[in-house]
Each structure stands twice: as structure tokens, then as C-alpha cells.
Amino acid sequence: MSDVKTAKLALDNVTSGYGHVDVIKSLSLDIRRGEIFALMGKNGMGKTTLLKTILGLLPLKKGRILLDGKPTDNLGPKGLVDAHVAYAPQDQPLFQDLTIRDNLRIALRSDRDLNAGFDRVQGHFPFLTDRLGQKAGTLSGGEQKMLIIARSLMMQPDLLLIDEISEGLQPTVIARIADALKTECEANGTTILIVEQHLSFVLGIADRWAVLKLGVIDDSGDIAGDTQDRILEHLRI
């Protein structure tokens, strides 16, 4: 683990969960500035619980969470938004009866940033800005996932947390999302923590990875030639 003071996001002996049940157990992890970090693991291993803990949606029982070297204890969800932290959740919380324009607009505090935001997401998903007046509920499943990613990018985040975005998507949609995420990292220095089970998607975009098993990091490393085999061994168990 690198120095927690130099990481974009650092978890230091974090324990969290629901009530008296500890789901995340003394977990330490760092995400470097400007990298894509993939957190993998089978269902029920605590991946989404960890994201919710980082976002302040679940209480931190023990340990520290640091953003740019500073504790996030007193920030809460609103404070994290102010710190340019964005979240693309798994369960597609779009406003189905609102237009694409209004769903994108919700990510911003001021309409002064609207055109800049549209310009940014148009480069990744041109079809969205061509259909700004269309209701989100009329989009296909893949288009809605792209809208979720686009909305999270509207605020120009420094840190983006993504939960299982590729689930159920066609390869062409996955490829478009992968290109968008890689471009964000390369062009804007965005740091991305992505929870995923789609192995080829991860291998195509991530710099580093870790496997979560029963609330602890079971293995981790850089993306390398043996990465796929190492991860598959953990996912089979």
C-alpha cells in the first residue's frame, strides 16, 4: 500500500456493515490519482457495502477513509459532492419521466455549467445530446446505463465510483463505456474505482485490481499477463 497521504482515496483498516454485522473487516486499500482501480469478487462479498461506506451512506465503525490525505468523517454525501466525488450506481436510479436533458442537468448545481457538461458527455455518447428531449424511460437498458455514466461525468468529478455498470450489457455498449472511462482518465486525470465482475472489461481499462472475499482483500496487483488467471482462481472458489 502506498502512503495514504499521497493517494487520491485511501482506506485504512476500515470496518463497516449493517447493525452488529461487520461486512467489511479491517480493510486497507489505496487508489492512486488518475488511475482506474478494479474491485472484483463474487456476489455477497461486500463490494457494494464498501462503496456505500466510502460515500458515507453506511457508518464507518473503525478505521479511516482519506480523500487527498484528509479524513472524510465529517463530509457526508453532500460534502463528497462538493469535493467532486461522483457515483454511478448499479440500480439505475434515473428519473424515468424526465428527459435526458433534465437527468443530466440534475448532476449540476448551476445551469452555467450545463453547456460545458453537454460538450463533455457528447464526446463519449453523442446519441444522448442528439436526443436531449427524449424521456429517459424510453431508452434501452444499455442507453440508460450510458446515461448514468454521462450524468456522473457532468460534474467533472475528480473521483468516480462505479458499481457493476456492465451487468447485462451488449459488448458494443461495454466497449463504448470502456472508451469513455479511459478517455476521462487520460484527458482529465479522473480517478476511477470500479466494482465489476466482467473480467475482460476490467482487463481492458484498469491499471490495478483487487479481489474482495468476505469483506477482506484476498489478492491484488497490477494488470499484467497473468492477471486473468489469478482473478479467475479467486472467482471460482
Question: Keywords, please?
Answer:
237 residues; six-stranded mixed β-sheet; four-stranded antiparallel β-sheet; globular
Number of helices: 9
What class do helices, strands and sheet pairing give?
A: alpha/beta
Gyration radius (Cα, Å) is: 17 Å
Which overall shape is indicated by the principal axes computed on the Cα atoms? globular
Mean pLDDT across residues = 90
**Uncertain stretches:** none
Overall description:
This protein has 237 residues and is of the alpha/beta class. The protein has nine helices and ten strands. Strands 6-7-8-3-9-10 form a six-stranded mixed sheet, with helices on both faces. Helix 4 crosses helix 6 (141-154). The radius of gyration is 17 Å and the shape is globular. The mean pLDDT is 90.
What's a concise summary of this model?
By secondary structure, the chain is of the alpha/beta class. Helices cover 36% and strands 27% of the residues.
Helix-strand layout with pairing:
Elements: E1 9-18, E2 21-31, E3 36-40, H1 47-54, E4 60-67, E5 70-71, H2 76-82, E6 85-88, H3 100-105, H4 114-124, H5 126-130, H6 141-154, E7 159-163, H7 171-188, E8 191-195, H8 199-205, E9 208-213, E10 216-222, H9 227-236
Parallel strand pairs: 3-8, 3-9, 6-7, 7-8
Antiparallel strand pairs: 1-2, 1-4, 4-5, 9-10
Helix pairs in contact: 4-6
